[in-house]
Design goal:
six-stranded antiparallel β-sheet; about 220 residues; mainly beta; 4 helices; Tumour Suppressor Smad4; Rossmann fold
């Protein structure tokens, strides 16, 4: 059981994923999209009736001049400029160049579970939890100005090549783990890893994601 906000839930998933135990969260934070309402009354009944959602993370492989770092992300992998200058990224999907040069503040790849988080704030699409899709979303794209992102099949392998990396440094973040001064970042869903979240009856993650699309 995790008591906190969404950030604490993500920390819990990373810390205890190898236990293979379902996680039930109650919100003591600010947003709590991945959490249930905090209420100690009838907790055993709520747990017995809870609805499960299985999540598969993204695996980030980040290359720097000093080596390679790997990390998992249940919400998103995001690339962010480190200085005042815009980042320049080349986007390669399944070994095919799709955008030769994206000038932007950054870009991200989101899971369905994470599509209502940073992805939504960057004007990316909300994805149903069982959608076999990933969202590729630019952050403040300058060129190509009209590009709004893409929906990728979950088996897609995305590769970001950082152009002019020394002049325009970029960091890569998998949930809350940051790797600075990256040169290449590879992102793909890892179906060999899964975690299970529990939600109160009638308040499943499916329902929350659907309701978010009709929110004020």
């Amino acid at each position: 059981m995790a008591l906190g906000g969404d950030g604490f839930m993500l920390q819990t998933l990373h810390a205890f994923r190898d236990l293979g135990k379902p996680v039930y969260g109650m919100n003591l934070g600010s947003v709590g999209f991945l959490m249930n309402e905090f209420n100690e009354e009838g907790l055993e009944t709520r747990l017995s009736a809870a609805e499960a959602a299985q999540l598969h993370p993204l695996r980030m492989v980040a290359h720097t001049k000093d080596g390679v770092r790997e990390a998992l992300a249940f919400n998103e992998v995001s690339l962010l400029r480190q200085t005042r200058q815009a980042a320049k990224l080349r986007i390669v999907i399944d070994d095919k160049i799709r955008i030769e040069e994206l000038i932007c503040d950054g870009a991200l790849v989101s899971t369905p579970a994470g599509s209502t988080a940073y992805n939504l704030s960057a004007h990316g699409p909300i994805l149903p939890i069982d959608a076999a899709l990933l969202a590729l979303t630019p952050i403040s794209a300058f060129r190509p100005r009209r590009w709004r992102g893409a929906l990728l099949p979950r088996r897609a392998r995305t590769r970001f090549e950082i152009l002019e990396a020394a002049k325009r440094p970029v960091s890569a973040v998998a949930d809350d783990l940051e790797v600075r001064d990256v040169t290449v970042v590879e992102v793909a869903e890892d179906r060999s890893v899964s975690v299970t979240l529990l939600f109160d009856e009638g308040r499943s993650l499916d329902e929350r994601i659907l309701a978010e699309q009709f929110a004020d």
